[in-house]
Design goal:
The structure is a homodimer. Chain A is α/β, with parallel strands linked by helices. The first copy, chain A, has two domains: 130 residues, Four Helix Bundle (Hemerythrin (Met), subunit A) (Up-down Bundle), CATH 1.20.120; 207 residues, Rossmann fold, CATH 3.40.50. Chain A contains twelve helices and 17 strands. In chain A, the strands form four sheets. Chain A has a seven-stranded mixed β-sheet with strand order 6-5-4-7-10-16-17. A four-stranded mixed β-sheet of chain A has the order 11-8-9-15, covered by helices on one side. The radius of gyration of chain A is 20 Å and the shape is globular. Chains A and B meet through β5, α8, β6, α9 and α10 of A and β5, α8, β6, α9 and α10 of B.
Chain lengths: 347, 347
């Protein structure tokens, strides 16, 4: 990539957020400038910016943007948090930046030091990005112990540098395996309906020179039956307190298939994805997106005009199908409320 | 449909075969005229005509076409049989028509009655089509006993009037369930990479006025987990003697998912699909198709130029995952070499 995935622009050119429009990849690297919160929310809703960790970063910078513009910051944080319902990181990032802003506003250190309160939100946003970059390295380090020599890893959706401040969650682990000489093949589910695997993960794999091949999502089972998959590694959009994992639609399908074929199924996600306030999988709100994401492609209809579609953006994998959850704080294995609580204990 | 799916054209306008180009549906009803065997083989290879039962019919009419043209009929039968490797019906139909032609040629009844030998091949081809039409009705009759009231049926690929001389195999059963007032919903897997579900099954469902919705293949698991699927019904391209079922890629995935969710998994296929000469699933040759079926869509690339793809056209479902095989001669349940042999005994 020549363009930055996500970039804050200071005044006087800003305040603004520049982001790489992920809906246009891999065909074009188009940078979108969001000079206000509604345009950022639009970019989030139409998936120009996406992926749980990056949504956390985007949420925080969005609050800083509102503050820098002199908008109603609390209202902006609420609107950003509601832009998409499933990834918990969005509300988490927006909430942290709002807290920092509110703490700085009365007369605090920032004012004393000649800074404006929006800069407190901005520092918090930058701290979230820095922490995410570090978390990517730590997750890869913890996860590498679970990757065998000559590993053929199957992944779903996109979890790399496009959605984190570092090398990625599951994709960061794949990169570490590659550097350690352990990656024989990265199998990439194309990830219908929006093809984040074929479009984005294959793009990142190409840039990094990884051995990789794309497949139709429904071909993963026959690949497993042929003994061609040693490990499944995916990210997460929200992990409930019981270890249930909401992630891109098709993840649960892979988890069932992996169990049937006795293939380990790893979820790689930062602790910011774990929502201890969501009790279990049933409590996770699943975003249902427009039917035309399924019934048309690149603006062309692929189904008859009158045919509707079932189009949930995510599914929920129960903890008993997850071999381990790899976080920056260590590995939860087996996945239980207890093993997750231990990792989150002094977070 | 206003155009016929498959039609023989007699001399003097022919001899020729007219067929509806299924690669253009649902956007356009384009009729392709095959005036010789190479053009028919091309239509078969590029899936303009497709689906196991229709391939049987096409194979037989193709031999009649070669005979009517005065071509080398045995060579034509062999070339047609090799046009695609997995569906057994293709070679079966071509072989029957070749036999009829060879028997008629020496000086038999056809010559005595003033007919030409190609007409024997043509009569055999018409008999195959008539038998297939009847088989569709019989399969639907046998299968209906397995469909509960208010059934929500999930299907994959396309198995209707576009691929048979009747209402279809699995789709014929769905139509019978609809007429019996038992169909609450037909869930249609879009069936990547070539989208036969979204393009063709949704088209047939729309024409028939069935309640239906399309879904990304990888969303079927969450639909089953939500208790929204009562039955999976699919067709078959080749059934081995042990009951292993080769069918469109993704079928095996559904079978594993159905087992995990305790949903009955039905295969609906005529006895011509059962190949007693193929011992088991491992003996079935699986066609691997071009990577660009996965990496591009409607002529547009969806993955980076350097990314390859894994693209088998079919997968193999072992008999232990198939609840029952519904044929025109009755139902094999459980699916064992014995239960299949009984159905095939006096075939």
């Amino acid at each position: 990539m020549t363009a930055a995935v996500f970039r804050w622009v200071d005044p006087p050119a800003g305040p603004a957020i520049e982001l790489l429009d992920q809906t246009r990849l891999p065909r074009a690297e188009v940078v979108v400038t969001c000079a206000d919160v509604p345009s950022l929310i639009d970019a989030i809703a139409r998936l120009a910016v996406r992926g749980a960790p990056l949504l956390g970063i985007a949420g925080a910078f969005g609050v800083a943007l509102a503050a820098a513009r002199g908008d109603d910051v609390a209202a902006a944080a609420e609107a950003i948090s509601a832009a998409r319902p499933t990834a918990v990181n969005l509300a988490w990032g927006a909430g942290l930046a709002l807290d920092a802003y509110l703490r700085a506003r009365p007369a605090g250190d920032f004012l004393a030091a000649g800074k404006r309160p929006y800069e407190a939100a901005l520092e918090q946003a930058r701290a979230i990005a820095d922490a995410d970059r570090l978390a990517c390295r730590q997750m890869a380090g913890h996860g590498l112990a679970l990757v065998p020599e000559g590993a053929r890893i199957l992944t779903h959706c996109n979890t790399g540098a496009l959605v984190t401040a570092g090398e990625g969650t599951a994709f960061g682990l794949v990169m570490a395996a590659h550097r350690a000489g352990r990656l024989a093949m990265l199998w990439i589910d194309e990830t219908r309906p929006l093809l984040q695997g074929a479009r984005l993960t294959a793009y990142e794999a190409s840039l990094a020179g990884l051995p990789h091949r794309v497949l139709a999502d429904c071909a993963a089972a026959s690949l497993m039956a042929a003994g061609q998959v040693d490990l499944v590694a995916v990210g997460a959009d929200r992990i409930a307190a019981d270890g249930s994992v909401a992630n891109k639609i098709g993840t649960y399908s892979l988890a069932v298939l992996a169990r049937h074929h006795r293939v380990p199924f790893l979820v790689v996600a930062p602790m910011s994805t774990v929502d201890f306030c969501t009790k279990d999988g049933r409590s996770i709100v699943i975003e249902e997106r427009a039917p035309d994401e399924v019934t048309s492609l690149a603006g062309q209809p692929i189904a008859p005009a009158g045919s509707g579609a079932y189009n949930p953006a995510f599914d929920v994998t129960p903890p008993e199908l997850v071999t381990a959850i790899v976080t920056e704080r260590g590995v939860a294995h087996p996945v239980t409320p207890g093993s997750l609580r231990v990792l989150g204990a002094d977070a």
